[in-house]
User: What shape does this take?
Amino acid sequence: MRFIVLAALVVAACSSPATQQQAAPPAQGANLNPPAEMSHGEAPVGVATTKPDRAADAPARTKARHHRIRMTAVAVRHEVSPDVWYDAWTFDSVVPGPVLRATVGDTVEFTLINGANMPHSMDFHAAEIAPNRAYRNVMPKDSVQFTFVPRVPGVFMYHCGTAPVAAHIANGMYGALIIDPAAPRPAAQEFVLVQSEFYMGAGQGKDSLRALDWQKLLGASPDYVTFNGVASRYATHPIEVKAHAPIRLYMVNAGPNRFSAFHVVGAIFDAVFVDAFGSPLRGVQTYNVPVGGGAIFELKLAEPGQYPFVSHAFADATKGAVGVFQAVPAK
Assistant: This one.
């Protein structure tokens, strides 16, 4: 009986009005001042905090049936955020690498030239090919060549597969390859988004050049999460689209660690093609794109205005996985 009475007193004390009225303290270390006027405005919108840079426009579908692609692996300085420079490893000096496009049944003849000071390689997720033959490590000042014929339509990741793979991807060696179906998709405004992460050590030298922090990478704790290699790139430079008109987004998640919970604020996806094979999902609000995966999103924006797009894993959106569509009246 004594135990029951004591328990009752404890419960009563925990539920007293004084306890219930205590407000939780604000989030420690969080900036609670919204950077934009709209909901989910995780970055300043339209503020020129980065230089005019790489457009998200998808390359046009091509009628060529034979594609000769040459890439050079080389290290460059890459600006991840204003005045934050990273010692990146790249394909053709850009992060992500160039967007490629072909059609099911085409012949893709690929050559990788290693202009760096360490081994590199190439892995095309769209290719069905023996890795020990094609995805071989290429030594400095050497090259490798192989050919494949894509069988499955979709949007696919390509990346350096040299060990440790996580380091080569985290340092910038990845990109997107669109494989079109034989019958063209309906006309739309087409864009490519590649999500990826940067894990940075302390700045070195007079210009504070950053390099990979391996322990941060192993702990999956990135400093920046980006679309097309720059934090908040398309918030400071919104992507202009037409309201009411079809939009098609080719989305690849390069990782190397974190999924992309892709979402467009103020819109519902008419269709989501998982790697673009088979019937699409219809009427989707948010869709998870796994690391190393891709998806094609189709939508229309209901009226003119600004529509943020984010990874709905909001720690990642806060670290730069955010952009904006600026919908203008269709003419």
Summary: Residues 153 and 179 are 5 Å apart (CA to CA). The first helix runs from residue 2 to 14.
